[in-house]
Write a structure and sequence with these properties.
The chain has about 130 residues and is of the alpha+beta class. It has one domain: Trna Endonuclease, Chain: A, domain 1, CATH 3.40.1350. It contains 2 helices and 6 strands; from the N terminus they run αβββαβββ. A 6-stranded mixed sheet has the order 1-2-3-4-5-6, with helices on both faces. Strand 1 and strand 2 form a beta hairpin. The protein starts with a helix and ends with a strand.
């Protein structure tokens, strides 16, 4: 099924990203959490790590790519949202938290091409799903 419009495409990407994280051993504990500073698409946990995930979905022919669409301003806002989340949610023990990013690429027909997870914004990616 092809998502209609920008919002539909984004929601479809978030659902695909959530499913991919779960298959890879992460527990998605929150979706689309809002605060005065903004929104986090997904909050995931694995072991003693908490991941605040921005999901960007693009059709492969669209520019910019999902990776190019994440700005410094958005990264700064992500940190403010993560800190607000941590301030309002009880966490078990001493969790290490990360600002994370998932790039979802689809073709023009709406078929999934790849899901790439960046556990840390400046770190190395992990392919959660890659279709040649």
């Amino acid at each position: 099924m092809v998502a209609q419009g920008k919002v539909g495409l984004g929601r479809q990407g978030e659902s695909l990203a959530s499913e991919a994280l779960c298959r890879d051993g992460y527990a998605v504990i929150d979706r689309n959490w809002h605060c005065p500073y903004g929104e986090v698409d997904l909050v995931a946990k694995r072991d003693e790590h908490l991941y605040f995930v921005e999901v960007r979905t693009r059709r492969t022919t669209a520019a910019p790519t999902p990776e190019q669409s994440l700005t410094q301003r958005k990264a700064a806002r992500m940190e403010m949202v993560a800190r607000a989340y941590l301030g309002t949610h009880a966490t078990e023990g001493d969790l290490t938290w990360h600002l994370s990013f998932i790039a979802v690429a689809m073709d023009r027909a709406g078929r999934l091409r790849r899901i790439t997870f960046y556990p840390d914004l400046q770190g190395q990616p992990e392919d959660l799903l890659l279709h040649p």
